[in-house]
Write a structure and sequence with these properties.
- The structure is a homodimer of 196-residue chains.
- Chain A has 196 residues and is mainly alpha-helical.
- The first copy, chain A, has a single domain, classed as Orthogonal Bundle (Tetracycline Repressor, domain 2), CATH 1.10.357.
- Chain A is built from ten helices and no strands.
- In chain A, helix 4 crosses helix 5.
- The interface between A and B is large, with 46 and 46 residues.
- Chain A binds a DNA duplex (30 and 30 nucleotides) through helix 3.
Chain lengths: 196, 196
DNA sequence: CACGTCTTGAACTGATCAGTCCAAGATGGG
DNA sequence: CCCATCTTGGACTGATCAGTTCAAGACGTG
């Protein structure tokens, strides 16, 4: 049973991340994590640290995985900023539609639950959550938007993107989610047109 | 110490509601509720039922209180739908700015945490949460919007309104929250203008 | 003033929580 | 083949959870 690690770290971290994602920090017990990962409690502690440390690793994993996808979606912003934002939203819509992964958004629900988290974890959550806005602002400026408009649209798009997870968990249909982003994309296209 | 009720029901329900609102269902213990309301555990049980029953009463109280404010804000939609939606958002912005009341939104965070709630409570949360969209749709149609546009804007405005609570809890400034709604209000004004 | 009724406070129950500890045993180097 | 090393499983700890029970005692009625 021992002598060599009996598990694949990536598989285990994915399982833990999905567990936190589905149930949130407060409603995920170490028994849940043990069941989800297939690891015993002492293995979790010796390999991954305590619950807070594991949660932080899952948050970082989530932020990196989807952050990379968001960056890729926005990479064409200089040529076609509207298509870039559309692709940005598609990352979230695709994630919501993916049956292999829970509804909702680990970042959004962690932010909402932040008063119940330990202060250092709550701080980290807000930092990761705050990465979205500058990412969008840079893309919109690269797409030729004025500083002021880019600032406003960046925070608006970040807010709408985040709202998709909440609306999805509330039972909104894919069509309704598309309508939500449609209004924003139309407004962006209008704002980017040379003359108002 | 007894013979007559020692407390005011409205005061107690407000205190319980704010406790759930601040910390969420999972992270509010009966000891927390007892401390917040000033009532003993057995008084809570005899007067208000168990934790789920009390939570449902707090949800209804929240939905009614702010639902009435949203209705009042939208009451001028037939004459000036843009001003009505602006007033609608102002209800939420005012609530976020109110220091007497927690950040966030009891409905939004309960929806996000719904997989951890008992099924019947989760159902009720989604029902209450879903009241926002028809309210907005009716107002926009009264303001002269086409059925299709009213449908799309209703779900968009509901999503953006909900996102304000998340963004506020994540640390967004009042100016950023105003920028988020500004994009939506501008898009609405544009959509309502007689000729595109 | 006496008694039935009802609220209240505190102790209690069994379950579950995060975290610790240690013996059992598998592994790989010598 | 043997032994040091490390993972693993399961038992354990003390704290906290939701919910129950019951005696103490304050009120209103007669």
């Amino acid at each position: 049973m021992a002598g060599k690690k009996q598990f694949d770290m990536d598989t285990v971290l994915d399982a833990a991340m999905i567990q936190f994602w589905r149930s949130g920090y407060a409603d995920t017990s170490l028994d849940d994590l043990s069941r989800a990962t297939g690891l015993n409690r002492s293995s979790i502690y010796s390999s991954l640290g305590d619950k807070d440390a594991l949660f932080l690793r899952c948050l970082d994993r989530y932020a990196t995985r989807y952050g990379d996808k968001f960056d890729a979606a926005l990479s064409c912003a200089a040529e076609d900023p509207v298509a870039a934002v559309r692709a940005f939203f598609d990352v979230t819509l695709g994630r919501i539609a993916d049956p292999a992964v829970p509804d909702g958004c680990l970042m959004a629900q962690s932010v909402m639950a932040s008063p119940a988290l330990s202060p250092s974890v709550a701080e980290h959550v807000k930092e990761l959550f705050g990465l979205q806005r500058p990412r969008l602002r840079a893309a919109l400026k690269a797409g030729g938007m004025s500083d002021e408009n880019a600032e406003d649209f960046a925070v608006h798009v970040a807010a709408v993107n985040q709202s998709l997870a909440v609306m999805g968990r509330a039972g909104a249909s894919p069509e309704q989610l598309r309508a939500i982003v449609g209004v924003t994309v139309d407004a962006l296209a209008r704002a980017l047109r040379p003359v108002g």
